[in-house]
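We close this part of the discussion by returning to an individual protein. The sequence in question and its structure tokens are set out directly beneath this paragraph:
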Amino acid sequence: MSDSSPAHSSPHLPLAGIRILDATSNIAGPFGGAVLADLGADVLKIETPVGDPARSMSPVDGDRSAYFHIVNRNKSVESIDLKSDQGKARLAELLATADVFLTNFLPDRLHALGIDPEHLMERHPRLIFGNLSSYGTTGPDASAPGYDATVQARTGIMHVTGEPDGNPVRAGVSVLDVGGGMWLAIGILAALVERNNTGKGKLVETSLYETGATWVSYHLSAEQLTGAPSVRSGSGHPAFSPYGIFTTKDGTLCIGVGSNNIFAKLCTLIEREDLITDLRFAANVDRVKNAKELKVEIEKSLTQNSAQHWAELLGRNGVPADRVALPEELHHDKQGSAIDLLLPYPDSESKVKKIPGLPLRFNGKRPPIRKAAPHKDQS
């Protein structure tokens, strides 16, 4: 039985009344659809009879998974074989009343299925067609497959991630999948605004590759200024110092100093005022140059007390600092509780009880998780 009923859309949310067909799979495209669903759109996930590969990404939860819960919340589902005549007829029926159609198909597949943007938008002039690919839809790599990690490698993100004397490392979260989904949602929102003025739909395209280039934009700019190749900075930052992970008496602490004023505060609080007038650390460019020496001096003080002590002392006195925590500690974080960071997940069958909501609040309220990610359509 298909679950194609509206995902309890709310008239109080910004995209209430907008109908979206989400034919994407895996992580990036579905995350973009989830953002739009969180904002109130009625999102129908169009899934092949085989099923979205994200359903089996570890760890699994029946016919769903940890990832699937996150990127398909607030959606309904319908299984459609887009290769069959019946499936094509059903899609055409749904497109007749849709505002947005999302895909992450390669160009050749779009044409083979007869759902390329040129033909669909000709038949449905108000339709907004959103496509998220690996490398873009034109150029020598338009048909090349790509996942978050492989495109991190291609765009240099891996090269600048990790310790200076270590190997390149994948970022610990899927920054291109999540970022690509965000860009897709942003593009759709912009196209909806324009359609209100023109009455016409628009083709919105983004890719993991373009997202990666945006994430390393600082490195591209810096190389043009200095001529020096990008390097790995570990937990630090090539533009600021002190910035990164420092050792305390009982663990690690992250400190971020972005100005001379904050540096002076830090030195005073750790009782190392002498560092303020030390010519090696007089300005940020000096501190970056002598970052290793500065780290040693700062840790002489930090190792005298706990990470929690320093996080509280520095934080309440204007120095950005916090201990390094586990992601699951967010379940018990007082700040998270104060802003409703984690929302109830409405599914009595799953062990997943709370997940992060959309990182936006409207008039003080975060859009709710109205509906759990759908089970596989068995019809």
In short: DSSP finds 15 helices and 13 strands in the chain.
